[in-house]
Amino acid sequence: MPRATINDVAELAGVSIKTVSRVVNKEPNVRDATRAKVEKAITRLSYHPNMSARNLASPRARLIALIYHDTSSYDIPSAGYVIRMQTGALSACRSADYRLVIYPCDFRTGSIGAELNAMIEHARPQGIVLAAPLSNMPRVVQAIVATGTPMVRLSPGTQGGKQCSVATNDRGISAAMTRYLASLGHRKIAFIKGHPSHKAVANRYLGYVDGLQQSGLDSSEHFVENGDNSFGSGEAAGRRLLLLKAPPTAIFAANDDMAAGVIRAAALLGLDVPGQLSVAGCDDISLARQLCPTLTTIRQPLSSMAERAAQILIRNADDESPLQGAEMIPATIEIRESTGPVSANTRLRGSRAQGLPE
Amino acid sequence: MPRATINDVAELAGVSIKTVSRVVNKEPNVRDATRAKVEKAITRLSYHPNMSARNLASPRARLIALIYHDTSSYDIPSAGYVIRMQTGALSACRSADYRLVIYPCDFRTGSIGAELNAMIEHARPQGIVLAAPLSNMPRVVQAIVATGTPMVRLSPGTQGGKQCSVATNDRGISAAMTRYLASLGHRKIAFIKGHPSHKAVANRYLGYVDGLQQSGLDSSEHFVENGDNSFGSGEAAGRRLLLLKAPPTAIFAANDDMAAGVIRAAALLGLDVPGQLSVAGCDDISLARQLCPTLTTIRQPLSSMAERAAQILIRNADDESPLQGAEMIPATIEIRESTGPVSANTRLRGSRAQGLPE
DNA sequence: GGGCTGGATGACAGCGCTGTCACCATCGGC
DNA sequence: GCCGATGGTGACAGCGCTGTCATCCAGCCC
Q: Is cis: bond before A330, omega within 30 of 0?
């Protein structure tokens, strides 16, 4: 059957198409009886408004773009990260009858500014959700700002500029994780920092320091190692920490990949996790549940963040609000198997402890 | 600056808008000189055709929908799978000036048929790319067929119906993997089957049998175990195989999760991989590169498959071809660290071999 | 009751593009 | 030199909707 148009509905309901339009768009100034009549006709004909016609006739694009760094060209450990954001953004779009355009792009490309510009010119989204780490790259942010398209940044790390953003409490939740470790009896809690370019990840270190302080613990420089977000760097840092004369009993890594590396380092040294060493990570990548033991970690509310960002953009079209300010959606701690209370024999090492091959 | 329209271009080039339209759509019957003039004007004004107007004016929707099973509600090990398909589909869409709509949905929902129907009515895509495992679920396939929207199925497992499909040579490449293992000197090659509902995964078993035969090896029932695609089932199956009196020297699992389980089982039994046991998987999930040792596996050309599917759909709009037949894009074997030649001391077990705690 | 206000509704003109068809040159064949 | 065929081009009517503005009818004030 040919698709029903607004004319068909108007005819069936005995009103003008304009009135149907009002009902569809939930505009005021329609009598209840009329509205009911129209709604009945809509149902009977299973009418769906034509997106293209709507967009053409009104300045509103009903299109949100989600721009993120494309990891598919190399490794894809962060695929879950992207999927979760998509899920959130899609959810907001679906309920508002908007469409979502996904735009993976590679920030290492020199021409990313031009590329984004072309995409924006082409798709003409009503708003843009910009994911981390693109959200804290001046080049990228500026290219988008230049187009004048409303934008919400996800986890921008710092509140630069007036752009609106949605973030999570990286620092606060990291402090909470540290306090949680302290509450298990740990006194020597180490931290492995992430790659310095990642602002949001850097905030986690600050949270760690806060947490130590709040728990009345000293932050010793010996218990802070540098990593670069990779599994290998986590393993190396973990090994260095565990081979100290007075090693920590808990290690908190700024991301899950490094935490997984720490678990491996511990295994190679014959240490039981969590019996002799507690390990915590951050991000809740899928690996966190597959690891053995499963990894206690911080779960970022990525989906909610992206959903909120899309909502802000959608609502912005109505009330022309200036679109600024930062929203915060709290992260949660996922307690799994890799953390536990300090045991009596914490200092005991397994037989394979010392001098293992790298 | 306000966005340039086709009128602006026509005026600048001194032709009618229809001629500009012809140039933009690469239609014939435009003199070269005219075409050049128009193209120059387009560049000067950096004109981009308005999608909505185009769609409204022509039956062609310039929209492809990618429908896949939404894993985000539970665990997300397959996020990479989705991302790779998206990448391929996006690539086809971008180069043809099409838009991509992603539609994750949960096949466990009772109302999935109605849901898909509503989505299709709403978005009106010109074609649908249906990913596995949805592509071999009759309920889902029928719901889409009922809408009359052109569809290409990805890895449908079997060639049911007349729908067009793009698949990979699961069976052939599995045979190749088996031959590869045999070529390393392995004579006792075990296989761990996947979940029976997954057609494409079932084909891998057939390939394994083919491969044994092609290598002149006997397929012994003792060397085939059942799994359910999960890590845990792989570990259990691996353990059973390795505790046989005459255990295999190579284990080929129908997917990577199970292969990872086998590696863990081997580690617990003190077996060195690949020194004493070769392990191969299938899918090339991101975990495959993070495992230690990294996993030899079969990489499905997901991105190419999705790209091809989208291309077929896009091209179908031009030449009204009946849209049927199955295309095949070959998978590749990724040789990594987990497989190696049979060593002299293959039968030697590590000290922790027997009777370890489960 | 006259004049007003404001809510409810409809007429109408596009939004920017494509499909159809008409038009005007050419051009080759007789 | 006349004809039909063909290539190149443009006029024009929508596609299905929304924004604007006009219209109409109640209800209200004095």
A: no
Task: For residue range A52-110, list pLDDT tens digits in order.
Answer: 999 999 988 899 999 999 876 555 456 788 899 999 999 999 988 899 999 999 888 88
The confidence score (pLDDT) of residue B349 equals 43
Q: Supply the pLDDT for residue A171.
A: 92
**Cβ-proximal residues to B34 (8 Å cutoff; 6+ apart), any chain:** B15, B19, B23
Q: Do B79 and A82 touch (CB under 8 A)?
A: yes
Q: Is A87 on the interface with B (CB under 8 A)?
A: yes
Q: Which residues of chain A have pLDDT under 50?
A: 76, 346-358
Amino acid, res. A12: L
| Adjacency order of strands within the sheet including A250-253 | A224-226, A189-193, A250-253, A278-280
Cα-Cα-Cα-Cα dihedral sign, residues B201, B206, B212, B214:
negative
Q: Which of B136, B90, B137, B85 is CA-nearest to residue B113?
A: B137
pLDDT score for B313 = 93
- The most distant pair of C-alpha atoms in chain A lies apart, rounded to whole Å, by 87
- Chain A residues whose CB is inside 8 A of the B76 CB are 79-80, 83-84, 286
How do residues B78-100 score in pLDDT, each as one tens digit? Answer: 678 889 999 999 999 998 889 99
Q: B-contacting residues of A 123-162, CB under 8 Å?
A: 123-124
Indicate the length of chain B as a whole number: 358
Matching residue, tokens 């895509």 = B125
pLDDT tens, residue by residue, A106-130: 888 888 999 998 888 888 899 999 9
| pLDDT for residue B140 | 92
Q: pLDDT value at position B73?
A: 55
Q: DSSP letter at A127?
A: E
Query: Which pLDDT band, with edges at 50, 70 and 90, does B287 fall under?
Result: confident
Residue with smallest Cα–C1' gap to C16: B53
How many Å apart are A57 CA and C16 C1'? 10
Sign of CA dihedral A193, A196, A201, A202: positive
Tell me the CB-side half-sphere exposure of residue A324, using CA atoms within 13 A.
Answer: 6
Q: Provide residues 30-59 of B with CB closer than 7 Å to any strand C atom.
A: 47, 49-50, 53-54, 56-59
Q: Measured between alpha carbons, how far is residue A162 from residues A49, A202, B321 in Å?
A: 36, 22, 52
Phi/psi region, residue B300 (left: phi>0; alpha: psi -120 to 50; beta: rest), is beta
List of E strands, chain A: 63-69, 99-105, 127-130, 151-154, 164-167, 189-193, 224-226, 250-253, 278-280, 297-299, 326-328, 332-334
For residues B55-68, average pLDDT = 92
* Under 8 Å between Cβ of A358 and A197: no
> Residue B208: which of B166, B260, B250 has the closest Cα?
B250
The CA-based diameter of chain B, rounded to the nearest angstrom, is: 87
Report DSSP state, residue B342. P
| B167-203 residue pLDDT tens | 999 999 999 999 999 999 999 999 999 887 677 777 8
